[in-house]
Amino acid sequence: MEIKTTRRKRIHLRRFLPLYLMMIPGLLYLLINNYLPMFGLSIAFKNVNYAQGIWGSDWVGISNFEYLFRTTDAYIITRNTLLYNAVFIVLGLTIAIAIAILLNEIRSKMARGFYQSVILLPYLISMILVSYLVYALLSPQSGFMNKTILPMFGLDPISWYLESKYWPYILTIVHIWKGAGYSCIVFLAAIIGIDREYYEAAELDGATKWMQIRKITLPMITPIITMLALLGIGRIFYSDFGLFYQVPMNSGALYETTNVIDTYVFRGLLQIGDIGMSAAAGFYQSLVGFVLVLVSNYIVRRFDKDNALF
Amino acid sequence: MTRQYIGWRTASHVIMALLSLACLLPFVLLFTSSVTDADTIVKEGYTFVPSKLSFAAYDYLFANSKTVIHAYGITILTTVIGTTASLLMTSMLAYPLSRKDLPGGMVIAFIVFFTLLFNGGLVPTYMIYTQMFDIQNTFLAQVIPWLLMNGFNVLLMRAFFMNSIPVPVLESASIDGAGEFTIYYKIVLQLSLPILATIGLFQALAYWNDWNNGLVFITEARLFNLQNVLNKIMSDIEFLTSSASMGAGSVAAQLPSETFRMAIAVVGIVPILIAYPFFQKYFVKGLTIGAVKG
């Protein structure tokens, strides 16, 4: 009996061995790229010393966090990250839904395909190229805004890259310009999937288009709206580093409104060399981010089990 | 009734046309600015209809094209190597996980999945790659960190394998004496071209557009990809001529800096614009899969 099971186990193992071998490169990569950094988060509790390395540096308890939260930076980056994401979620979803509804009204397949391709174009290019496009508009000496638009209304030129008060609007516009085409595709797919019979019945009853949208389209896609909103909330502690770093061209005068957790961590690590603070801010982001993902997933699950991530 | 519908349709067309313009015009402005005469720029700024044209920026660019061509080479090399390696690793991890009879499969699937929920972020990742693996200023730094493989694609591919490769096909191949690697290569990959194409396309785009790895891990100009060069020129307009390590800089032509910025961005954008119509269909399809699943 004993011998039989071990032998079966061995046959079992020999049969599956190639499958396990196949997984080694991928799992090794996840170990290096994902799991080691998770353990490396412990660096937030250390006094980083390059000579002693990441695992060997001395423990200093929570002093990195004490320094971090004593600065006004901690407040500013948290505030900026949360506010931008809140605006991005609300405005981003609203505009994407509106575009999807409009696209769905367009019957000609060719026209619809054309619009869709064009509004997806910004999604394809890198943030570096986006920063060039923004520069063409906002360059202080030669930008389209300062040289053409503002003079048209008799206004004085603005030093866009030095005045932080404009950037919440600029970054929001850029974010939506780049991402709306992408997010509207999900909604369009959902709207196309709605049974035509609902609309036909509504038409017979004399419902206007506007009523059809309010009473049929929107309720039918509510599950997806909820899901995307909650996914956004799960990621509310993370931001698009390129948007906040490249588009304002890392201009120090704008930090008040452009510094978010991701840019703060990057500058601390690679430009200012304040690794302790940077590691503490990164730890804060990873931890709160993780909790938020779990909470938002829990909420999705309560709404609709199928749409939950886990 | 019909009038109302025509109204809606017209309104939709008008709004969508305006939005399309909003998406396209910045690109047009970039292009017209790049061919504007340097003196005209001073007077009129970047504009859609420059009163005087000039290709000086492009002349300057061609005279100093070594760095740009080299950077394109790096971009193409990382994109090809990275995408190929990525597809291999992703599918080789996804296929065993798609086998319901694999002992421990669920545990490993969870290990993959957990990376989507929690991550160490920039600082520890930077430390691991630079201190444990000394990856900075090597070609591998453009390929490996963050981009090479991600758990989401593994799970996407696993779901595809589970749904569209019939188990009896795998079993009969196994009975005929095919080994697992043969089955993976001859059957699984051949039956999965749609998902390989989709994930491959997104990976290729990610590599093509990546500037983050270069920004974090690379300081030597010889390893800069196109995005890194563009990034550098934004803050250091003289970069093309000053990177003497590349052997450029022999041309002493006057640098038309304001138009040159626009010209180099045009050079960066054009390949994507040319390729877009060809992959556009797969791209939209892929977005729908990814977004619905995610």
Automatic annotation (TrEMBL), chain A:
The chain crosses the membrane at residues 12-32, 82-103, 115-138, 166-195, 216-238, 275-300. It comes from Paenibacillus soyae. GO terms for biological process: transmembrane transport. Residues 78-296 form the ABC transmembrane type-1 domain. Belongs to the binding-protein-dependent transport system permease family. Gene3D superfamilies: MetI-like (1.10.3720.10). Keywords: Cell membrane, Membrane, Transmembrane, Transmembrane helix, Transport. The keyword Membrane applies. GO terms for cellular component: plasma membrane. It is found in: Cell membrane. It is a multi-pass membrane protein. This is ABC transporter permease subunit. SUPFAM superfamilies: MetI-like (SSF161098).
From TrEMBL, chain B:
CDD domains: TM_PBP2. It comes from the Bacteria. GO terms for biological process: transmembrane transport. The chain crosses the membrane at residues 69-95, 107-127, 139-162, 183-208, 260-279. GO terms for cellular component: plasma membrane. Keywords: Cell membrane, Membrane, Transmembrane, Transmembrane helix, Transport. InterPro entries: MetI-like, MetI-like_sf. PROSITE patterns: PROKAR_LIPOPROTEIN. It is found in: Cell membrane. It is a multi-pass membrane protein. This is Carbohydrate ABC transporter permease. It comes from Paenibacillus soyae.
